Amino acid sequence: MVVNKVDFSESQSENTIDVDYLQQGVIELLDEINLLIDNTQSDLENLTESKYDLVKDQITAAVKNVADLELRMAIVAPMKAGKSTIINAIAGQELLPSCAVAMTTIPTEIVFDAKTKQTILHLTKDTIDLFQNIANNIKDKVNRFGLESLQPKLDRYPHLLDLFTEITQSSDFAFTEQVMGRKAIDHTLNRLNHTIRLSSIIDPTEDYIARLKDVPRIQTPWLKIGKNRKIEARGNLTIIDTPGPNEAEEGLHLTAVVEEQLRRSSIVLVVLDFTQLNSEAAKTIKQQIQPIVESIGQDNLYVAINKIDQRRQGDMTKEQVKQFVVADLGLTNNDNDRIFEMAAIRAFSATKFLLEVQQNPKIQLLQIKSLTSLAQEVLGIDWDEELEDITVKIMAQKAGKLWRKSGFAPFIESAISTLIGNAAPKCINNALNLSRSHLLSIKDDLNLRHNAINQDTAKIQSEIESLENDLSYLESCRDRLSTMADVKIKLQQNLQNILEQLKTEAVIDVESFFAGEEYQKADAIKKADIHARNLLMSNLGDFELFPKWVSENIRAGIEYKTSGTISFKTELEAEYFTQQAIDRAKKHLEELILKVSQDIEVEVKKSREELEKFLIEETQDIITRAKNRLQTAFEIELDLPSPIISSNQEIQIERQLVKTKSRLVDDGYEERLVKKRAWYYWFGAIPFYSQEKRKKPYKKEDYSAVSVTEIVEQINESSDRFVDEIQAKVTVYLEKELHQQVDNFFVKLDEYLGGYLSSLQQAQSDHKLSLEKREHLAKSLAKLVPQTTDCISKTDSYLEKTQKIMINS
Description:
With 809 residues, the chain is of the alpha/beta class. It folds into five domains: 10-66 and 413-452 and 770-808, Four Helix Bundle (Hemerythrin (Met), subunit A) (Up-down Bundle), CATH 1.20.120; 70-265, no CATH class; 268-343; 348-406, no CATH class; 461-742 and 762-768, no CATH class. It is 59% helix and 11% strand. It has 23 helices and 15 strands. It has helices at 10-43, 49-67, 83-91, 125-145, 147-154, 161-169, 182-202, 255-263, 280-296, 318-329, 344-359, 371-378, 383-386, 392-405, 408-452, 457-479, 482-506, 510-521, 524-532, 552-557, 571-630, 708-767, 771-808; strands at 70-76, 108-112, 120-122, 178-180, 217-220, 236-241, 267-273, 301-306, 339-341, 558-562, 565-568, 658-665, 669-676, 688-695, 699-707. A nine-stranded mixed sheet has the order 4-3-5-2-6-1-7-8-9, sandwiched between helices. A four-stranded antiparallel sheet has the order 10-11-15-12. Helix 3 runs parallel beside helix 11 (344-359), helix 4 crosses helix 7 (182-202) and helix 16 packs antiparallel against helix 22.
């Protein structure tokens, strides 16, 4: 792979060329290693075929990983911070739709592929089938509840009404696997995101996002502007657009899908709005990325402060903003070079114009579609008049200047350089380490057979007997593991105590669940008022009993509360209220489980240390003798992971909580004309008519009712089952996993020594070959050993260069 000189700094240019050079060199080396294995299998007899086949498969996979390097960067941001604008600015075209309301509901991958000539959106068959199911479910809900009951909700989202009409009235609501062209892609992404949001509004009980196996994937060319011109030769950059925390409305469950994309990424970009640095959404973002940053390292965290074009006199300066971000995210001053200020809308205006001119070199100024947005940015209030005396060349120069002043150029160059200078070497480094490990194993096999073929048969036999004694001792050591039983009992008791505490804390009551938050915030008079009344027995005047997690729309539909029962005008409103309560309980339980997971991890770590101490004491002599025999170092460790305590179940409600009831309600009065006679009116001879009010009879009315006490009872029963399932998993862990990992410790040691024993036994067999075959074997070994050594030397050389790049990047 040949790459022209890149216009970065000198050291960065050298690193870039080294990465490309290493990538090609390592691919060639891995191919050479596979050829060496083929030759070893063909030249030597009685090899363990499965072992060498496995090695070949792993190295072949490593070749693909290095050749098809894909660098992933996840972008997380609060709604309207400019996340989509940043991605569009990188692409130079409006790949992602923008909207005045919450837009992103599903992640979208944007692959900047050097080989792609046009922009293509890819949807898998599973994704298309899922959205067809969503459309069918929406139709079913409309048929079941009727349009009238859904209308109040739909009225809050007028931008979804056209899609709602299309889904409910069309017999063919479908998507295609490939969509080409910017407008068609924009339309498709809008439909996908709006369909998810519409479904969450109509049926919040369904979590379709969790069922999404694949995310939409856009392939697009890399924007070749300035220093970006040479980047295409160094692999594909994949950016993942993720929904922000304040984009989750009406029952959307976005956290899990965002965290999945973060885990799969090698770098994370946090976008913050300069005008809202202290917002609640920004704080949520910081909490969300914290565990991911601990995993990938702070060096892989980038921060973009967008909308600096709105900075006014008296606002925070650039240095003050950096100091704020460093303190807020727990970074150090050394991390300043990964904090960028930018005006993405300016960068987007510039890149759109420059890309359009690149693609149409002879285009006339007034034919450029992106001219207006650029002119408004660079020509000021009289932009339309200024255009009369300007050329394409001058506007292109102004676009380049706007690009540089937007703060976007340093972000792109530094971020991309880090992706290539960090993620790429890591990928290469992993492949080299894997190959080196296999080469050392092959070299041990070859060396032993090569040395043993000329050794005395009696000496080989003595070594075999010594190894057999060590293996026999290992077996007796395994039988003496009474210590493990003590460790297991102690661990079992500690984990049981943790789970009992979880079960206790998972129980909720009506007061804390439905009024706790407001109770804590109420003043003394209101608190006294709460204590003086039975909760949910009557309205509490101007003090709103229901907590903030009950939506305003549902609160408006609540008619009255008596005897712990809440009535609603429609069944849909009652079901939605119930689901909100269940979601709240689920969140409460998830928070508890996170803490329990940490406590369990601490206990397991203590037990692992106890077992390791015992096992090392018992096997140290054998390991020392093995190292002396083989003249090599190897480590056998006890791998005892913490049990996975997450449950496949969610909070399940077994009884129907929404009940349809009837009641008699006052129907008011009606006025009627009544025929009367009175002595004072013509002495009763002539009748007259009088209008009188009469009370109407009570009328029967159906309504939906929910018992909050019953909700709490059902949630507690479900939580109890949930914890019981976790307890069962812990029991299985103690009975199987603990034993399995200790067995694995012995198996690894047994395999290492057993492999050496097999090699010695193979050497014994070699001595029984005819003289001609022994000579042929000796020649083959004499050729293969130096070839293997040469491959190891090349691997070490590439590893050294890779480490230098990783240190300097």
